[in-house]
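Hello,

I think I submitted the FHN job twice by accident. Can you confirm which output corresponds to this input? Input:
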Amino acid sequence: MQDEAIRKERGQRANARQDPRLDWWREAKFGMFIHWGLYAIPAGEWNGQKIPGIGEWIMYRARIPVAEYEPLAKQFNPVKFNAAEWVSLAKKAGQKYLVITSKHHDGFCMYKSDLTDYNIVDATPFGRDPLKELAVECQKQGLKLGFYYSQTQDWHHPDGDGNDWDYDEAQKDFAGYIENYVKPQVRELLTNYGPIAIIWFDTPKGITVEQSQALLDLCRELQPDCLVCGRLGNTLGDYASAGDNKIPQMAVEADWETPATINDTWGFKTDDHNWKSPPELIHKLVDIVSKGGNYLLNVGPTAEGIIPQPSVERLLAIGDWLKVNGEAVYGTKPGPIQGLAWCRSTARPGKVYLHIFDWPQGGEIKLSGPQATGAYLLSDASRTPLPIKSQSGKVIIKGPSEAPDAINTVIVLTLD
Ligand code: FHN
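Support: Only one job matched these inputs. Its output is below.
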């Protein structure tokens, strides 16, 4: 793993590359990330001031005292939340797994925890457990469910990392916080919600090898098949994590994932309208997959429980493209053609998929490619062969003069 997008401490543990527990995840390629919590109420604004940066960091950025942030819970009543709709949206988008914040850095628990009353069931008028409802729906609709859990930063807990405006850092008992709070909470999450596919730890910071290892052991004890993301820290996770919105330059020989935003924030922010376009998102998905990674694409629901419409539209557009071209994405490996601006490639035994982002004028595709025996458009159900020849080490395919798909046309090369 040599790409700066993937740092060592977020890396994949030794031997995981051959671990069959990851096979479903290697096949899946595309997941839905959900950042949802109390921060959706201020949605980027505190005491009439716009707070710069990502929405879920508002407590930290505005140094909001626990005593002022905590009462947000009394207002949290997301009555429009509908687990069936969220799961169904992920499915329509072609996403194969869903990871939702069970506790983000603000410390608020989006599930019923017996360790603190600062949780959605006990502290809000809503009184429901959305993680339970999602677990039921994921089972029903056949989607894998994962939980994000902030193991190091907790700005609410007196011994958690990060809050130095309410608490004296020197007085903190971080080891005690891991032992008496984090571990029992992970136990709750892996006991009360049925099979959990992923625990998505985040921002390991100064967590020790022993602490990361103890969390890993606990996960293995409770749900041996549950994958643990590389942000557990200390290179102990089952798969590596690229930086947020970071894509490696070249294919990486590891199991890795890019968590990414559709606009700029993770948690909902009223005035973040910087939406990436559907073509941009489809290109990112394909770029990542062509380099051997998974794309975990975020939505930030509102305080009412609604996934913003621009996110919905973009996810559906990706899903439409995948309906036609999914064969060139799911379960593929990086293809032999790498490093071109206008084309990506993915592969499976006997086939190479060319993803043409910029269709050449006249429709002649020329590359230093593998020895192919045939070519056809993946969107062409009749598989009409495209003229193909080899010339001075290049393969030349004659496609239609206009791009069949303005975003990304996939050509299948068949190999001997
Ligand atoms: O600090 C968090 C951030 O709020 C968000 O959850 C992202 C998602 O990958 N992770 C951390 C920063 O890397």
